Amino acid sequence: MPNIKSAIKRVKVNEAKTLENTIRKSALKTTIKKCKEAIVTGENTSDAYTAATKALDKAAAKNILHKNTAARKKSRLAKALNAAK
Fold it and tell me: 44-78 as b/e, with b when 16 or more CB fall inside 10 Å?
């Protein structure tokens, strides 16, 4: 444990941010999974794809994912969506 007051605060802040990022990343994974399931079943594909791309863009904007990772995931979802049509 740190002894300096500012270091103690940094530990608390980092724990809080880690928890928040974990929650956001989990929600993102769920959204992507729902999009993939929608593509397989063929129901509400455009809505699911829109939600997934929006979530990926938000995650990239908040530095939860790297922007290139988000772009790659969006590209792969779009490719799967077009292949399913």
Answer: ebeebbebbbebbeebbeeebbeeeebeebbeebe
Apex 82 CA angle, 78 and 85, nearest 5: 140
- Domain total in the chain: 1
Report the distance separating Cα 55 and Cα 15, nearest Å.
Answer: 23
Structure tokens given for 50: 């829109």
41-71 pLDDT tens trace? 999 999 999 999 999 999 999 999 999 999 9
Q: What is the CATH number of the domain that holds 51?
A: 1.20.58.110
Query: pTM, whole model, 2 decimals?
Result: 0.87
